[in-house]
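User: ok so my PI wants both of these folded by tonight, can you help

Assistant: No problem, let's get them done. Here's the first:
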Amino acid sequence: MSISTTIKSIQDIMRKDVGVDGDAQRIGQLVWMLFLKIYDDREQEWELFNDDYRSPIPEELRWRSWAADPEGITGDELKQFIDNQLFPGLQDLSVDRGQNAVVIRSVFEDAYNYMKSGQLLRQVVNKITEGIDFNQSQQRHAFGDMYEQILKDLQSAGNAGEFYTPRAVTEFMVNRVDPKLKEDVLDPACGTGGFLTCAIEHKRKHYVKTPKDEQRLQQSIYGWEKKPLPHLLATTNMILHGIEVPSQIRHDNTLNRPYRDWGKSERVDVIVANPPFGGTEEDGIENNFPAEFRTRETADLFMALFIRLLKERGRAAVVLPDGFLFGEGMKTRLKEKLLTECNLHTIVRLPNGVFNPYTGIKTNLLFFTKGQPTTDVWYYEHPYPSGYKSYSKTKPMKFEEFQAEIDWWGNEADGFESRQETEQAWKVSLEEIQARNYNLDIKNPHVGEHVSHDPDELLAQYQTQQQEIQVLRDQLKGILAEALTGRGSKSNG
């Protein structure tokens, strides 16, 4: 039975359980089990090569002890073991058991066993034990592809979809910032870890030549994620990609820490990220930031933080919506800071539908380097492939589509001298941007206004406009709430 068939049959079993409601819960339930199975498989490998290896997990809680025997405990006994021994035991692991104990404890602190039937639990456990052996190289490769599919399934699981950036986009962004072996790579809103796994693969492909190189790679990947399900997915993803101790994937809200507390020693060489946009942070988070950058809009707070977290000559690639480009007020001040402290050399404008079905809002890829001001911003409008009117689940964006941008890109060291204006590419000077009050929403001058009469296109445009209107409403609500809060505190004083 193939791994994809195994995963599908597991999800079918879970649908019979009254405790599991919806795709997000099914994925959460599946992934903590996969985590323990994959970790157990990796431990077999570590034990083989290291006679002194000691598991951070107590013997009775290891997958091999309670799950591996298909005739083992089942029914109420299994359910009670998972709820009353397994979860409490993993959530309270002693840090004295090493760094991986900290990782496992962090993974399970907000994990949950949704399943109510011990018999169905045993069926799921047996399917995982029979169908997945991570120590077989062929299966390991196949499971990597299957895990990617699980992450894609999150796109149709309500708000959980915000944590998945299409693989083609992450690959292209990492390809362009080109993280070197010794450079630290950070995603401060890492979701399920897509950017970080691309960075791992990029470094292994281009720069890892020796075991010592691999060790340096292992120490150079950092990610922080606020929500428990994506953090669990990201940690599992790191283990799947050969990170033996993924302790640098922290379960934490990056924005909780005061902006000024991030010191020089914590700055990194490369940031690749898709910060959550369209949402607002809880009350008080904005007070961690300087007054001129205070807002409750998540993506703007992250953007201010990205600039601070980069070293001199550090490079970033970030996904942001159109609203950041044309937004005013705090966004204007933030864009002025970005163009003053960094060289925002390239904006790739993506077409509608790249993030469907999670959002139809138009998005952009911003590439910048810290340490010198911007003189010109190059824009590149990414077209649909021939014959496409939009992207969909069956017609996703592919990495090969970015070959035109890669061929055009040139070299930052020589100021991108080789770049030429084309039907897709154009250059705008800093002076023109300043004259526009830092409005970066600059349309392609080589393309006239196109009026479509296609019903599908018009409907897609309407849905996108409705989503953009809702985002603007949310922003206005946040601004009004801030204004009223400020007025209330003054009158109280």
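One down. Here's the second:
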Amino acid sequence: MSDTHDLSCRCGATRWTIARAARGTLLKCYCADCQTFARHLGRGTDWLDAKGGSAIFQTVPHSLGFPDGMAHVALLRLGPKGLFRWYAACCGTPIANTLSGPGLPFVGAILRPDEDRFGPVRVWANTAAARAPVKASGLARAVLGVLSRAAQARLTGSYRTNPFFDAAGAPVTPPTILSKAERDAARPH
């Protein structure tokens, strides 16, 4: 058995891995922004569940690597101050969300809705924008998990390894920021 979970974009040009030993929390996020991101990339039907949720494995950046296709990794922001949303530009496959800098070591790896290698869903978040009723649950677990993993990464120095930011803390590729019209066009109804 490999030490990593192997993932790839739809066309196969970009591959990334998540360490099997990575500590993390699997959640479903139903926010309008996650839905907008998937819809803008043309992945609204295959990367969102029936209720509009994104499966996200929250972990630390040093647990994620790119054996192939890093040249295709692109960065999108839904607005000037939004999350960094990383994707494979070759075919529009969502990869991950990060904060706008590496100071708090966090990555939310975006998974296909039917992905089952990362354990059970523990958190249902931002459910107000769901397409059907979903009960919010476990948000405190998610926040505590992020803070705990980030603190450990800072203490061990592993936060310095981050495939999305260079040694100076700049993103490895410049972000594209959606215009209001582009964002509105992809917003869920």
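The mean pLDDT is 96. The first strand starts at residue 4 and ends at 8. Good luck tonight!
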